[in-house]
Amino acid sequence: MAEQLESLASPLNTIQEKWKLLPAFLKVKGLVKQHIDSFNYFINVEIKKIMKANEKIVSDADPNFYLKYLNIYVGMPDVEEGFNITKPIAPHECRLRDMTYSAPITVDIEYTRGNQRVVRNNLPIGRMPIMLRSSNCVLTGKSPSELAKLKECPLDPGGYFLVKGVEKVILIQEQLSKNRMIVETDRKGLISCSVTSSTHERKTKTYVVQKNAKYFLKHNTFTEDIPIAIAFKAMGVESDQEIVQLIGTDARTMAAVAPSLEECHKAQVFTQKQALRFIGVKVRRSRWGGPKRTRVEEAREVLHSTILAHVPVVKFNFRLKCVYLALMVRRVVQAQAQDRVDDRDYYGNKRLELAGQLLALLFEDLFKKFNAELKKIADQTIPKPRAAQFDIVKHMRQDQITNGLVNAISTGNWTVKRFKMDRAGVTQVLSRLSFISALGMMTRISSQFEKTRKVSGPRSLQPSQWGMLCPSDTPEGEACGLVKNLALMTHITTDSEEQPIQRLAFNLGVEDVHLLSGEELNSQDSYLVMLNGNILGVICDHQHLIRSFRKMRRAGYINEFVSICPNHEHRCVNIASDAGRVCRPYIIVTNGRPMVTNRHIEELTKGYRAFEDFLREGLVEYLDVNEENDCNITLYEADITRDTTHLEIEPFTILGVCAGLIPYPHHNQSPRNTYQCAMGKQAMGAIGYNQHNRIDTLLYLLVFPQRPMVKTKTIELIDYEKLPAGQNATVAVMSYSGYDIEDALILNKSSVDRGFGRCLVYRKQNCTLKRYSNQTFDRVMGPMVDAATRKPIWRHEILDVDGICAPGERVQNKQVLVNKSMPKQTMNPVQTPGQQPEYQDVPITYKGPVDSYVETVLVSSNQEEAFLIKMLLRQTRRPEIGDKFSSRHGQKGVCGLIVNQEDMPFTDQGICPDIIMNPHGFPSRMTVGKLMELLAGKAGVLEGKFHYGTAFGGSKVKDVCEELVQHGFNYQGKDYLTSGITGEPLNAYIYTGPVYYQKLKHMVLDKIHARAKGPRAVLTRQPTEGRSRDGGLRLGEMERDCLIGYGASMLLLERLMISSDQFEVDVCGECGLLGYSGWCQYCKSSRNVSSLKMPYACKLLFQELQSMNIAPRLKLVKYNE
Amino acid sequence: MADLEQIRTRVTLTEHEVINTHSTDFPGNYAGYDDTWSLAKFEEKFRVNIVSLEGSELEFDMVGIDAAIANAFRRILLAEVPTMAIEKVFVHNNTSIIQDEVLAHRLGLIPIHADPRLFEYRQEGDDEGTAEDTLEFHLNVKCTRNPQAPKDSTDPDEIYKDHKVYTKHLKWVPLGNQAELYSEGDIKPVHDDILIAKLRPGQEMDLKLHCVKGIGRDHAKFSPVATASYRLLPEIVLTEEVKGERADRLVRCFSPGVMEVTEENGVKKARVVNSRLDTCSREIFRHPDLKDCVKLNKLRDHFIFSVESTGALAPDVLVCEATKVLMGKCRKFLSELDAAADTEQQNLR
């Protein structure tokens, strides 16, 4: 012992560069591993389970008929080119041709045709959209050069789908975990325990509630709550003693349960039969007929398959369910005694649903529908006498499953009838604004919680989210805290088999629940063992169980993602192997020493070792949130004590992808980091190596993107340096002119001339040529030629001979891009066959205040339309006043002034800043990280290296400043500047140095709007609204109030009527109704008709009122009377 | 009195701010000083001393002049001395991945070796140009595969030909009588190894470029200097003797060569050697015991100019050109003044 203590006291030699485990981890798993793993599990494993669960179709019409699925496969993505000819397809072609990247789902079946038994293999039943970089994607396992041949970016993470040419991401959905008890207080302050059971068949929620000191079973299928004792009796536990024993025999529990037992006597229910009859009356009957059943049968059926559906009931043996129900009651009693309920927001109680699981739900639904349809066809067709034998294969239609999947992904509406699930917005279009925005989207988690409710609980940062979710990356506003992002090392588990775990548990001394009575289950010296929320049995030495279980896991005998942890309060051990738990890897520490040593890291660096080897050898293991709570984890080796069980790999991994870009984030005020997370996604830069091959609706690129001077480990890991989004600008923190107030920036004109902040904007124009039902079709004509000059008219100037604009041409406003014309008659057949149909011009024209250039023209076809013409238009923009820029610290600002270089201040070396930033941006924002970035950047420039600003680490300010001094600069980074205007020195020393600046997508050119006169809306004759329609600028209620208050009545009249929708009407003085042309149709006279001016909207109102049988009458008085 | 002299002639760097930044020696501002301007006095005080002239870099001292005038030189050098730069790019073909506008921008920034003094400004709206105001270049590059490349090579330099477009590919095409006036070597890009674009087999560019005369205020590409700036001559004054270990520390606070330690009778003493070399890092203020021993000054009227030419003209020529521009401005100003006086006279009459 003394020896041991001594060894503990000796200084630990730290593991050098243990962060190198991180790239190794990411190499294996990639940044979007959770999506890809989940999808792979679905198409390789889950889909087979779904098929197994629905494998047989029988017909009511013919008892001999059956169809049995033998196997199911998802193939490789291909495209149908004509009848029965398919060719493999690459994702990029799908993107360009607006197609779906999908693979056929084929099945092997065995069925009867007449009296024959037939086996058919590889029958397609539909198509499955394939996730990019999943196991069935053509891109997996390809080298960068092979990817380049497929026009794919090697840095693209994959994990999304291509549906109709659109990149769609299925967002990670966060939910409360299923099949777990949760104790909470309801609105009335009463404690209840609820379980959401979810099986392949259905999803139901069961409660045990307390009312008037009695316990009840509550469920949607019951019209009223069932006293708990009756529920027990209905499930076959007839003796009161046994009920109490199951729930618990300690004095407190017995006292709490006693009143509930009386309920039986009140209801005169003593036997199972009586109890079932009692319940049967209270069962809500389903509306559809179904087989006729008695009340008792109905009650038994409900208890069997609806109440606590996830607890298995074999042959109506309700034993396990009773134990489970008793445990629920016990939990309520316990919670009452301790006055403590479970925390819903605790992250161990959450499960994340990924693409694979969501698609599995959808697919099972569609597969069931497909089978039901087949059954219906069989039922209908078999009785009919037919010439040919009934062959079910001929009735298998592919489009139902295909369309179901494609529509769900493309609209984001997830409707699963049997779960009563109807979610909208499950999928989103992958944002390709910048590389980071695409990555950020792949790690996004959306919560099922409604955004409108004003509660802070689910929105606030939970301590249990530590290391799993990024603490900074969440949007502001209504979705704040509900939309989250994964941290860098988070992994999400997929399902793993329960049987081996069960077997192992029994071998390790767990006593089977079926063999035990209530007294033994609730014994004071044993722990309950739960597997995925179900009771497995009882263990005496739970510590031994946990210890050996973990050893087995580390040795690789069971799946590394299975977690085990005790809950001392509930006296149980929870084993979890279900899908959707979040977990992350840790270094294992034993006897005060980390298992990973320098030797291991060395081997890793040399490439002898991969991350899997660390896992396999038990040096590193995954911990989920629940197991984390049973561990003692240190951040640094120096903090290791004897109780330490795990060591963090690197602290900066608690941040996500977006927050990982920020240098020195641990020195910033926390909301600033959150702002930057939102802004990093709007920054322009490079989006992928294939950016010039893509034709996106809108694409922003920076002409000369740069790597940041101050980088972080995360930046290296996610390859931000290869696809950067910003430029290193020399910033002087000082005031200049008056155009820098409110965060405005001053730009150096020479810098702008030389390419700072220059960006490219690409916009897509689409055109399809359709073929109509009457055999007519759209056509594209060549340019129209001016008769006099023999040259194309101005509008057609840029057209090629084929009628489509030529690449490289400059397009001006209102010029034609595609000279398309459409037949006037598209529905009815053309009268005379020889006659040419009449055409009408429907040109695609360019609209925009600034000219564009035609980058590329793509002529292709998609699945439906014969022709698809896509044009990519390009603009190059230099920064101008009003363009938005931001540093990486949530400090956004617009350009307030562009100043000539000679007017800018300069240092003794002649360095002129690119940007002048007002120092008032600092005191209230407290972005110390930005100050540090500047210093580190400056030192890096002088030294010729990149400094690190990694979170919780990075280059130290002291070292950086020392470096500055060595190069003859001031220690504080402040320089002596000379004014460029007066030529005299500035009084203050100015903080100058490089800071990484991002150009954000918001540019004045896209927002600039003014109008004098212009279009009006047809209905009201008022000016149109909005920039896109060249609308007017509204003089709204508040502005109107100002004018009223000021008394400017004539201005008011002018603004609201004369300049808007003035209309002259004829009003009859007699009847007060509107007339026209000096004639009143009501009075049939023109005697008293006078003309006056009113807003057209007012006249419209009168007419609309008249149409509703309300007569608005105007009383006319001569103003001089 | 010494203080007053200090305020008049020195800019002082203190720990947290620069004081006496403005020149205050206006006539009548100080009692006992005659600050009226006279040519004789100016001629006596003013001197220009060329420190170094190497290649495209020039360093010279300008002493005895007001900051405003020195600044005027700097500003004119940056923005008003004309040079030739590519202004119009006629793209006949460009199949490279670089966009036409970006390519044109890159081409524009290439410094062109041509004497702008021999050219006129191009008239506004003139697209064609004449021999007097335009230089024409052609850039015609096509990338091909190298048939002699080793089979297993992946080096682009080996497997492709002409895959990098350099400034050396720019070909000058004389317009009009330009061939007689200028020889082949006169008109060319300053550097022939500036990378313009990269190509891959099958890609080509065929461009016609027009160079015109312009000034830096219009666009930075016309600026004849990479940078032109000045700094004031630093002056380091030891206010007390610094000895021993403190002397060592003191010397280390300044740039190398500014101070040295001398040993006198076994006592180390710090001495200012060449304050001109100091970068004014103000390191001294981090040593509380030393900061009062030294006064950091800068001479208000001693400007150390550094001019870095882009290569079109030699830096010394540029300074002369800048002087001419300034003289032109003065002349214009004077004539404007005269004209104003004349009109006033007429009005009076």
UniProtKB/TrEMBL annotation, chain A:
Keywords: Antiviral defense, Cytoplasm, DNA-directed RNA polymerase, Immunity, Innate immunity, Magnesium, Metal-binding, Nucleotidyltransferase, Nucleus, Transcription, Transferase, Zinc. InterPro entries: DNA-dir_RNA_pol_su2 (IPR015712), DNA-dir_RNAP_su2_dom (IPR007120), DNA-dir_RNAP_su2_hyb_sf (IPR037033), RNA_pol_bsu_CS (IPR007121), RNA_pol_bsu_protrusion (IPR007644), RNA_pol_Rpb2_2 (IPR007642), RNA_pol_Rpb2_3 (IPR007645), RNA_pol_Rpb2_4 (IPR007646). PROSITE patterns: RNA_POL_BETA. It is found in: Cytoplasm, Cytosol; Nucleus. The keyword Cytoplasm applies. One of its GO terms (cellular component) is RNA polymerase III complex. Its cofactor is Mg(2+). Pfam families: RNA_pol_Rpb2_1, RNA_pol_Rpb2_2, RNA_pol_Rpb2_3, RNA_pol_Rpb2_4, RNA_pol_Rpb2_5, RNA_pol_Rpb2_6, RNA_pol_Rpb2_7. Residues 178-353, 428-492, 529-589, 611-643, 1031-1115 form the RNA polymerase Rpb2 domain. It catalyses: RNA(n) + a ribonucleoside 5'-triphosphate = RNA(n+1) + diphosphate. Its EC number is 2.7.7.6. The keyword Nucleus applies. Residues 658-1029 form the DNA-directed RNA polymerase subunit 2 hybrid-binding domain. GO terms for biological process: defense response to virus; innate immune response; transcription by RNA polymerase III. It is an enzyme of class 2 (transferase). Residues 30-402 form the RNA polymerase beta subunit protrusion domain. Belongs to the RNA polymerase beta chain family. Component of the RNA polymerase III (Pol III) complex consisting of 17 subunits: a ten-subunit catalytic core composed of POLR3A/RPC1, POLR3B/RPC2, POLR1C/RPAC1, POLR1D/RPAC2, POLR3K/RPC10, POLR2E/RPABC1, POLR2F/RPABC2, POLR2H/RPABC3, POLR2K/RPABC4 and POLR2L/RPABC5; a mobile stalk composed of two subunits POLR3H/RPC8 and CRCP/RPC9, protruding from the core and functioning primarily in transcription initiation; and additional subunits homologous to general transcription factors of the RNA polymerase II machinery, POLR3C/RPC3-POLR3F/RPC6-POLR3G/RPC7 heterotrimer required for transcription initiation and POLR3D/RPC4-POLR3E/RPC5 heterodimer involved in both transcription initiation and termination. This is DNA-directed RNA polymerase subunit beta. It comes from Branchiostoma floridae (Florida lancelet). The lineage of its organism: Eukaryota, Metazoa, Chordata, Cephalochordata, Leptocardii.
From TrEMBL, chain B:
GO terms for biological process: DNA-templated transcription. Residues 57-336 form the DNA-directed RNA polymerase RpoA/D/Rpb3-type domain. Its main location: nucleus. It is found in: Nucleus. GO terms for molecular function: DNA binding; DNA-directed RNA polymerase activity; protein dimerization activity. Keywords: DNA-directed RNA polymerase, Nucleus, Transcription. GO terms for cellular component: RNA polymerase I complex; RNA polymerase III complex. The keyword Transcription applies. SUPFAM superfamilies: Insert subdomain of RNA polymerase alpha subunit (SSF56553), RBP11-like subunits of RNA polymerase (SSF55257). Belongs to the archaeal Rpo3/eukaryotic RPB3 RNA polymerase subunit family. NCBIfam families: PRK00783.1. This is DNA-directed RNA polymerases I and III subunit RPAC1.
